[in-house]
Amino acid sequence: QLHLQESGPGLVRPSATLSLTCTVSGGSISNSPYYWNWIRQPPGKGLEWIGSIYYSGSTSYNPSLKGRATISVDTSKNQFSLQLQSVTAADAAVYYCAKAAYGNYLLYYFYMDVWGKGTTVPVSS
Amino acid sequence: SYELTQPPSVSVSPRQTARITCSADVLPKQYTNWYQQKPGQAPVIVIYKDNERPSGIPERFSGSSSGTTVTLTISGVQAEDEADYYCQSADTSGLVVFGGGTKLTVL
After folding, report:
1. Which of A83, A99, A100, B83 is the most exposed place for a label (fewest CB within 10 A)?
2. pLDDT tens for each residue of B48-65
């Protein structure tokens, strides 16, 4: 059974770069027909998709982040990572990684069926 | 990119039927999915591709679609169904969007 686990620093300073890693176990990222995603949830607010990556390295990002996010994949470690530059207090959130199935069957589908438990990232000096 | 609009809250009595809507602001609508999130937990998918139910999700959860609106229906609501529910879709360029979420309260 596929399992995803987020890891990263317990605290990020304002203007610094937030770095998180998602380790995938129970399956391989390599050659898997899935997208690997980062999603965040500020305290008391809704879910926000940050971006996704395919095992080949192809990426998509939420335009609202204005180019601050970078997602990369390391197939040798079965991990994918998020870097978010120039963080502010508004970036404080629970960050989730998730695997998404996708495809075209009459319409386009993209759904996240396996999620990590999430990691809380406070932003403070 | 586009937006998905959900009502902020829905209240229902136990054993009644809850319906949560999600409206897309553009056409063509792509498939929509629903996630349940309980406090302090990660979201769990309960409906995908508008109306398909993953294994392990109770039959009382169902989905439907009409035009640009999709609906999550929970028949015979139980106390354990009290949670936040989010719809989600994606366009063919790979951009993913979530609705704002609906808090389901079981009275």
Report:
1. A83
2. 999 999 999 999 999 999
